[in-house]
Fold this sequence. Notes:
Layout: H1 11-14, E1 20-22, E2 28-31, H2 39-50, E3 56-61, H3 68-74, E4 77-82, E5 89-95
Parallel strand pairs: 2-3
Antiparallel strand pairs: 1-2, 3-5, 4-5
Amino acid sequence: MNAGAKPPPGPAAAAGVAPTWNEADGTLHIDVRGLGAPQPLVQVLQLVARTPDDGVIVVHIDRDPVLLYPELQQIGWWAEPIEGDPGEVRLRVARAG
């Protein structure tokens, strides 16, 4: 995906692949909307594992991922809700501390 180019929602998620892209500010995005459980959790955690300690990820998801928070905490990361599009939950995920 080109920097700053957001993929259209839907088709990639329908294929089980969460699209990722970088915004101009360097923030990495992942869109796990439409994926069946446990794929949103799995794909976010896989991306976190590949992200440098100073990286920031914005997660686009269908609903509040209550199971994700303790998993992130266990590996030294945290998430906070941020403003998103109507009908989505958007989280900012970063290394704790």
